[in-house]
Amino acid sequence: MTLTVRDVSRLLGKSEREVLRMVQRNELPAMRVHDQLRFNRIELLEWALTHFVELNGEILESSETGDFMPTLTESLREGGIHFYLPGVDRTEALRAAVGKLPLPEAIDRELLLRVLLARENLSSTGFGDGVAIPHVRNPLVLRVPRPLVTLNFLARPVDFQAVDGLPVFALFLLVSPSVRLHLRLLSRLAYALRKPELKERLRSRAAAADILEVLQAIEAEMNGKPAVSADRP
Q1: Across-strand partners of 132?
Q2: pTM of the prediction?
Q3: What's the CA gap between 130 and 199, in Å, rounded?
Q4: Which of 74, 90, 125, 198 is the most buried (most CB within 10 A)?
Q5: Which residues contact 154 (CB under 8 A, 6 or more apart)?
Q6: CATH number belonging to the domain at 72-225, selected among 3.40.50.2020, 1.10.10.10, 3.40.930.10, 3.90.550.10
Q7: In this structure, what is the dihedral angle of CA atoms 155, 123, 101, 90, given to the nearest 10 degrees?
Q8: CA–CA distance from 136 to each of 31, 57, 67, 163, 174 (Å)?
Q9: How many CB atoms neighbour CB 125 within 10 A?
């Protein structure tokens, strides 16, 4: 799950010396493990998304194995699209969104809510344009049998302290059973949210079938792309 300076140099297309300078300037999230710099894959992806930086597709790779790899569209169809969720602040909005997740009975929803709120306190998952992607940094804690993505349209926009300062009207809530799936779905969702056709469907609060249709088309376009782009269109 962690990356070395050399890994990040390759992913960013920068020299190792420049990567080290970025860490020294606190421009890049890193940690020290036995006097060696290490980077968390999910933190690095989040950093790239909020700074509109392109990452090499290798960020999606991990040492985990397994053939089951659902698409983002399948995971959203599984999780569901919901309208007019209540909530006057971030906590209430997240509580309502967690309540809509089709989770196994054994999953503690209050624990999930607390983990999501703790994640928001680290840094906002409001990535701009009125959309937030609440997710946990360590997906294994949930032990869900399959990845789930829900789209929740709020009854009224809520301040999520997003990078662009705009209130959030749509929440994509993502939970997954493995880091590999988590990275794949998060990166695919971030790419899709840069596409104007999906943005328009979200702004107009289109019907669930229309949103799934355009997302499926975007995923078909994504297949075979070598990089995860966080650039605005």
Answers
A1: 126, 171
A2: 0.76
A3: 10
A4: 125
A5: 84, 85, 87, 93, 168, 169, 170, 171
A6: 3.40.930.10
A7: -30
A8: 19, 21, 23, 18, 8
A9: 26
